[in-house]
């Protein structure tokens, strides 16, 4: 996917993260309310991690292996969150993850972003399904998945050292046929 092009939605631009975003990422992802329901965001958020993470997103984005993007508001360009879609090893499916800065919760932004990523997954990445895993009690994320057509497929236990050990998760799947996938 050389020359990844930003994805636009009515209110958002899903774009490559740049090193100049690092301070905002540290600030937004540094809120405990954001970190505690994710598998991978540490709390407290270590200084320098955002820059390392942003650097690590560039090669997989160029190769089309996985996309980890910033969400910017079209209105003023502010970076408000991030979304990731990581291709699984066989290559036909992917796993999605996301977080949004606290001031922008409840405005439908992540539903908009996930819808756009699913379309991209089916078309540009040629995936046939996307998985999401959500902690028990994460009502907002569960709702985002329901609104974007995911179906509950079961529960699993994951070892998540950043969240203090073993956690039960709900697994959701979204089939992508009908989203313009080129067979
Ligand atoms: C999950 C998250 C990305 C949602 O982003 P968002 O832009 O606020 O989501 P949306 O506004 O698109 O949709 C949220 C939905 O959940 C609902 N919701 C949120 N909190 C709720 C609650 N406590 N009880 C019931 N519904 C709730 C909202 O009403 C909305 O549903 P509706 O449109 O039917 O009213 C955001 O809360 C977040 O970053 N959380 C921390 C990180 C995280 O959990 N990431 C996901 C890991 S799987």
Molecular structure report:
The chain is of the alpha+beta class. The chain has a domain at 7-130: 3-Layer(aba) Sandwich (Aminopeptidase). Helix content is 28%, strand content 33%. An eight-stranded mixed β-sheet has the order 1-2-3-4-5-6-8-7, sandwiched between helices. α1 crosses α3. It binds coenzyme A (COA). Coenzyme A binds at residues 34, 37-38, 97-100, 105-111, 134, 138-141, 143-144. Residues 34, 37-38, 97-100, 105-111, 134, 138-141, 143-144 line the site of coenzyme A (COA).
Walk across the major sheet and give the strand order: 1-2-3-4-5-6-8-7
Q: In whole angstroms, how far apart are the ends?
A: 18 Å
Sequence of secondary-structure elements: EEHHHEEEHEHEE
Task: Calculate the mean pLDDT score and round it.
Answer: 95
Summarize the biggest pleated sheet.
8 strands, mixed
CATH domain fold name of the domain at 7-130? Aminopeptidase
Question: So what's the overall shape?
Answer: globular
List the helices and strands and how they pair.
Elements: E1 7-8, E2 12-16, H1 22-29, H2 32-35, H3 49-63, E3 66-73, E4 79-87, E5 93-100, H4 109-123, E6 129-135, H5 139-147, E7 151-160, E8 165-175
Parallel strand pairs: 5-6
Antiparallel strand pairs: 1-2, 2-3, 3-4, 4-5, 6-8, 7-8
Bound molecules: coenzyme A.
Summarize the entry for a quick read.
With 183 residues, the protein is an alpha+beta fold. It is 28% helix and 33% strand. It contains 5 helices and 8 strands.
């Amino acid at each position: 996917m050389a020359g990844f092009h930003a994805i636009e939605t009515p209110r958002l631009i899903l774009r490559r993260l740049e090193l100049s975003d690092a301070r905002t990422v540290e600030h937004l992802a540094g809120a405990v309310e954001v970190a505690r329901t994710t598998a991978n965001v540490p709390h407290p958020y270590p200084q320098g991690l955002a820059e390392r993470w942003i650097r690590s997103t560039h090669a997989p984005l160029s190769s089309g292996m996985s996309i980890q993007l910033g969400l910017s508001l079209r209105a003023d360009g502010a970076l408000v969150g991030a979304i990731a879609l990581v291709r699984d090893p066989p290559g036909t499916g992917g796993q999605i993850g996301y977080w949004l800065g606290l001031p922008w919760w409840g405005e439908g932004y992540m539903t908009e972003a996930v819808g756009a990523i699913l379309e991209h997954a089916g078309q540009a990445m040629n995936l046939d399904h996307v998985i999401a895993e959500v902690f028990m009690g994460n009502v907002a994320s569960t709702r985002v998945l329901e609104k974007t057509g995911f179906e509950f497929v079961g529960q699993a236990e994951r070892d998540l050292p950043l969240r203090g050990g073993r956690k039960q998760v709900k697994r959701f799947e979204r089939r992508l046929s009908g989203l313009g996938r080129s067979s």
